[in-house]
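Students often ask why we bother encoding 3D structure as a string. The short answer is that it lets us treat folding as translation between two languages. Here is a chain of 160 residues written in the first language.
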Amino acid sequence: MSETGTGSISEWRDHEDVKQLKYRYLRTLDTKQWDEFEACFLPDATADYNGLEFDDRAALVDYMRTNLGEGLITLHQVHHPEIAIDGDTATARWYLQDKVLVAAFGFMLEGAAFYEDRYVRTPEGWRVAHTGYRRTYEVTYDLADLPSLTVKGPGEHTHV
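And here it is in the second language, the structure alphabet:
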């Protein structure tokens, strides 16, 4: 789509499809739906999360499945997408806000970063070829320093 917003319907659709892919990536990461998370990537996709690097989809998904399991609550939100489509490839920059809570260890992290992604159109739709971010800040907390804080996770009644 052009800077003036005078793109074709197909260009608009590509932008929307890339957005949907990124949102699905985040939703499946936070809900730990690992098969759907894996389907967001090309098999040879790479990632670099501020120095935490992966050479392919299998290594990335295995790491997430192993390290973001039960008892670890995550929140990943992106906004302000800057998407450029070039035929069957695309690039995007996203502003990330995230939070990680591990009640069992009395730990919370929150931060922000800028994602830099590359995408490829496949017969099944757009897929991530590379994802990664560089932090703008990161704050960690010892939950013992927040005595009135309570943490409830998936399946726990949160209206009490």
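Translate back mentally: The chain has three helices and six strands. Keep this in mind for the problem set.
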